[in-house]
Description:
- By secondary structure, this protein is of the alpha+beta class.
- It has three helices and three strands.
- A hairpin with a 2-residue loop joins strand 2 and strand 3.
- It starts with a helix and ends with a strand.
Amino acid sequence: MKPFRSLVGSLMYLACGTRPDISVAVSHFLGNPGEKHWDVGIRVVRYLRKTKNLGIMYKGSLGTDLVAYSDTDWAGNRDERRSVSGIVLMMCGAPVV
């Protein structure tokens, strides 16, 4: 269990800091970890290796206005019937939160 927690913690750190593109994949297996979740975590690590040159670019020419986006999925997960929602705050054309 400790290696799994370490993997998830590392991926969440990256998701929050520099790679928001993995946030959904990582957050889906936080609640009830199992063997398939370890495999998904390893798949995310492979994805990160293949896309290590991707990053967040802040373009000052786009202005410093803060723009918020949100989305929600009302019980779209047919297995658990849970709703999922998310937000992103953008500044200078890139996510800040």
